[in-house]
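Illustration 12: Sporulation protein.
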Amino acid sequence: MKKWFLAAAAAFMITGCQADNNGDTAYDNDLGMRNVSDTDSYNFADKTTQKLIPNQDTDQFGYVRLQKNENDSTQQGVIGAIDRDAVADMITRMAVNLPNVNEAATLVTDDKVLIGYQTDAEGRFETADQVKKTALSVIPRYYHVYVSDDDTVISDIERFQNLTTRTNNIDSYLQSTIQKMKQSPQGEKVSDGENPNGVMDGETDEGKMTEDSNTMQ
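Figure caption equivalent — predicted structure in token form:
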């Protein structure tokens, strides 16, 4: 299984992903619930080489939602340097290519990834672990990842698509959704010193150190 994820991550970094130009609903707004077939949304600097330039607004969240289309390969095209929209797109495409995952939505903030997905798998824990690992294979190591197969979570995280890191009380809104997501299976621990979401021992979901850990220091 680990080899599969390493291979998948390598394949996406090399070949990238581009949506089929047919059948996708168009979205385009401040934060990036983008039409996945609209390459202009990713700010291609050179349409000949298809090289990406990073999103210039580093406060923006990235959001992508996809449904599985068995007649469409979601592993086509090219991705270069990535911003949050591109990361969300990559994670979502990898997730919907997993067995038994029919739909997925991914929100990428400055230090968190939230993935809601729809599955018909009986092994919820194993599926949660696989979905989580799609994100862990492409994001910076300090990110925390939260997943949920709750039918309402996709709509919950969709609400954040028009918000940014500067939105008033955004941390509180995110934490409320995260606590709901954590009621679903989160898969295996990321490592011996981290919980299933990648939160280190003595750290909170918000990335702060607990009082006990500060006292020990």
